[in-house]
Each structure stands twice: as structure tokens, then as C-alpha cells.
Design brief:
The protein is of the alpha/beta class and about 300 residues long. Helix 4 runs parallel beside helix 6.
Length: about 300
């Protein structure tokens, strides 16, 4: 059976600074003609090189995950999750937009010095696979009014989603970014999607301005909460990683996609479902990271 995902050994062909906090890295390789272009928030993984050994010990067979986890630290390539910002399979190219947040983690350290010719390995959807590839969480019902919200870690996925939306789509986008100059990040949004940028500018906690802006955007979008629903929602609040996406199809005429720092995203989801009465099947929420937890 042809696997849904495969390894793509690539090289950097271009690096473009989009704003103070974002760069766009273009990866190239003949193998990318087999990279499936699913659009929206298609997750992929970047396998980063390790000193001295580069990718010498990276397993790529069917049992790669368990073998990778068992490698000693000096042989184990860091693997991080990103969004395929653009796929040009006919040219053998994939763009990935990356957030620059200092040198605290391997992905950001790599991105700060990335240059044409650098080698990397992508793990992504295999066009030769005939079924569902997975890794796509944005699944709104047709015609729904949208609420899309996230911080800078979600901005590349948001940009990819907006680029693929039908031009008749209506709704709101709220993005929290580190600085005002990051609002230069290019977005191709339908005319009916209102985009709101909120900036921390070093003076606000992660997620605080995002939460406030979303509350303002959805003010008045309240549905009476039936008796018993609040308790049911409380039981669904996850204790660990925050990630819940409707698996049996989104419901209703509105749909929210929320992604970013876990505490902020949990707060927003609770506000929509518990306080405003949104159907939980109409809210996809994903905690990409947790404030205070270092990227290892």
C-alpha cells in the first residue's frame, strides 16, 4: 500500500524576509513533484540537521517513528511541525513560512541562518497515495460564516487558509503578532473576510490581546445555552495538549478555527462554547505551543 506521507530530501532555493518576525523558505527538489497540494492548513514536518552527522541517522522506513525516538540525542534530528504555505509540484518547490523568535529552539536557530543550498528533509503528503493524507483540520460546513483566530505561530496556516477560500466567504480573521511591522505579512483574503491585526509590541502577555479582540468581534453572537450543556463542556476540557477538531463534520452556519498558545486558545474556545452557546462541533481549536514550555 502506498503510504499517505513520505520523506522528501530537499535543499533551500530561496529565503525571503516577509516582516521582522517571519521568513519564507522555498525548498526545492525533484522529489517534490510527488508532494500533494491539499491547501488550507496542511501540516507537514521539517527534519532539521544535527551537528556533524546531518541526516546520517534519520530513519525513513515504515517504522521510522519508533526508531527515531530510540536514537541517542546526538543522532536524533529535531522534527518540528509547520504548514505548507504554497506547493508548486510542477516546479518541484514548496514554500514554508517560519516565525523567528530568537535562538531558543532548533527550528528558529536554523531559520535565522538559513541560506540557499542548505539541506533539509520534509515529511509531507504523498501525491501517489489515493486516500486521505490527514493533517488537515480546517473543515468548515459550506457557506458558514467563519471566525479564524490565532497568534503568530498560526499566521502561516491562516494565510494558507485564506488563499484557498471561495471568494464569497464571509467572516472575521483576528491575528496577534509581535510587532506592528508584522502586519506586512501578505494575506490574500476574500473581500468578505474582515482582518484584524493586534500587536503585543512587547507590552502585553501572549494571547491577551487576541482574546480581547476575538471577544469584541463576536460580541452579541450569543445563543442561549440549554440546561446541562455547560457541565458537558466542562468534561471535555482537556488537561494536556489542547487539540480538538470535529471529526464527524462541523455543524451549523458558523465555524471557528482557533490556533496558537494553548491557554489563550482554551480561553477562546470556552468563551464561544460555554458563554456564547456555540455548538462545539462548529469549533476547531489547536494549542500549537504552551507559554513557559521551552522548545526542546
Amino acid at each position: 500500500m502506498t503510504p499517505a506521507w513520505r520523506f522528501f530530501p530537499v535543499t533551500v532555493s530561496a529565503v525571503r524576509r516577509l516582516s521582522p518576525s517571519f521568513i519564507r523558505v522555498t525548498f526545492a527538489g525533484d522529489c517534490l513533484t510527488s508532494f500533494a497540494d491539499n491547501g488550507y492548513d496542511q501540516r507537514i514536518k521539517l527534519c532539521l540537521p544535527v551537528p556533524v552527522h546531518e541526516f546520517d541517522f534519520l530513519p525513513t522506513d515504515e517504522d521510522w517513528w519508533s526508531r527515531w525516538r530510540s536514537l541517542p540525542d546526538e543522532h536524533r534530528n529535531p522534527i518540528r511541525t509547520y504548514t505548507a504555505s504554497a506547493v508548486r509540484a510542477d516546479l518541484g518547490e514548496v514554500d514554508v513560512d517560519m516565525v523567528l523568535h530568537g535562538d531558543g529552539g532548533p527550528a528558529s536557530r536554523w531559520a535565522l541562518v538559513a541560506a540557499p543550498g542548505d539541506a533539509l528533509v520534509l515529511i509531507g503528503p504523498n501525491a501517489a497515495h489515493a486516500g486521505d493524507h490527514g493533517g488537515l483540520e480546517f473543515r468548515p460546513p459550506p457557506g458558514a460564516r467563519l471566525l479564524i483566530a490565532g497568534d503568530e505561530t498560526a499566521a502561516p496556516a491562516v494565510a494558507a487558509i485564506l488563499a484557498r477560500l471561495p471568494r464569497t466567504t464571509r467572516g472575521d480573521v483576528v491575528l496577534e503578532i509581535p510587532s506592528r511591522d508584522d502586519a506586512l505579512l501578505p494575506l490574500s483574503a476574500p473581500d468578505g473576510m474582515r482582518v484584524t491585526w493586534v500587536c503585543r509590541d512587547g507590552g502585553h502577555d501572549y494571547g491577551s490581546r487576541l482574546v480581547a479582540a476575538v471577544r469584541h468581534v463576536v460580541a452579541g453572537h450569543r445563543t442561549p445555552v440549554p440546561a446541562g450543556v455547560r457541565a458537558a463542556v466542562d468534561e471535555l476540557e482537556p488537561d494536556g495538549d489542547i487539540w480538538e477538531v470535529p471529526e464527524d463534520g462541523a455543524a451549523g452556519d458558523r465555524y471557528a478555527w482557533l490556533a496558537g498558545e494553548s491557554a489563550a486558545i482554551t480561553t477562546l474556545r470556552r468563551h464561544l462554547v460555554k458563554e456564547l452557546g456555540w455548538d462545539r462541533k462548529s469549533v476547531a481549536f489547536m494549542g500549537y505551543w504552551r507559554n513557559g514550555r521551552a522548545e526542546s
